[in-house]
Write a structure and sequence with these properties.
With 212 residues, the protein is α/β, with parallel strands linked by helices. It has helices at residues 24-32, 66-71, 78-87, 91-94, 122-133, 146-153, 161-166, 186-191, 194-211, and strands spanning 4-5, 8-9, 57-60, 100-102, 112-113, 116-117, 141-145, 175-178. A hairpin with a 2-residue loop joins strand 1 and strand 2 (8-9). It starts with a strand and ends with a helix.
Length: 212
């Protein structure tokens, strides 16, 4: 397996034509030291993610919230509480990196706007997404949460997040598009009661199957 860091191929060993493997610890350290978006981040860089090559489930979200930035723990907020209920997972299982990887499209808190948190910084996915996902060779299920993650993982421009989620059977059982679990999305959940009545129970059974 040949990893790339910051978009650069790792130098080949003398006398070989294949790239050297970047130790995962080195990749993680390089990502955590990233300062590419520092001038645009109101609280400064603090990449937050959870990664282990044995993970079976990938949670592909948007970007950390202000509270998550402060704690350094993915989904350590009200959004995480709701997401864990949707998945039927305890905190212990959710934070078991050997089973659940959490890699948002933007690894740092992007700041807040009038309607909530700003979109993830585009430089982040361009630089780090492929290197971070490449070690995840045992994935059985990807959860694409929100517009930005769905555009990357579904690779199709459906009219809206709602339309993508309504078409969840198209991607089942290896990929599931989800709405953002933020309390700011309560209105969407009220307008779409079928989501928690129909999809969430199916998703919980699929999660239990994958988690073993």
């Amino acid at each position: 397996m040949c990893l790339r860091t910051a978009g650069r191929p790792v130098a080949s060993s003398p006398g070989t034509s294949q790239c050297s493997v970047v130790p995962l610890a080195s990749l993680v350290a390089e990502v955590r030291a990233c300062r590419r978006c520092a001038p645009q981040l109101p609280l400064g860089p603090r990449p937050v993610f959870q990664l282990h090559p044995a993970a079976r489930i990938l949670i592909a979200a948007q970007a950390p919230s202000r509270k998550v930035h402060q704690s350094g723990i993915p989904f350590d907020d009200a959004s995480g509480d709701r997401l864990r209920r949707w998945l039927g997972l305890s905190r212990e299982a959710f934070y078991d990196a050997a089973r659940v990887a959490i890699v948002p499209m933007g690894l740092c808190f992007p700041g807040s706007g009038r309607a909530g948190d700003l979109p993830p910084r585009p430089e982040c996915a361009t630089t780090w997404r492929v290197p971070l996902l490449r070690p995840l060779q045992r994935l059985r299920l990807t959860l694409a949460i929100g517009h930005h993650a769905q555009m990357f993982h579904l690779r199709e421009a459906a009219p809206s997040v709602t339309e993508r989620i309504k078409a969840w059977r198209r991607y089942w059982p290896t990929l599931v598009p989800l709405p953002h679990p933020s309390p700011r999305n309560n209105g969407w959940l009220s307008r779409n009661p079928w989501f928690e009545a129909e999809l969430v129970p199916r998703l919980q059974r699929r999660i239990a199957e994958v988690m073993g």
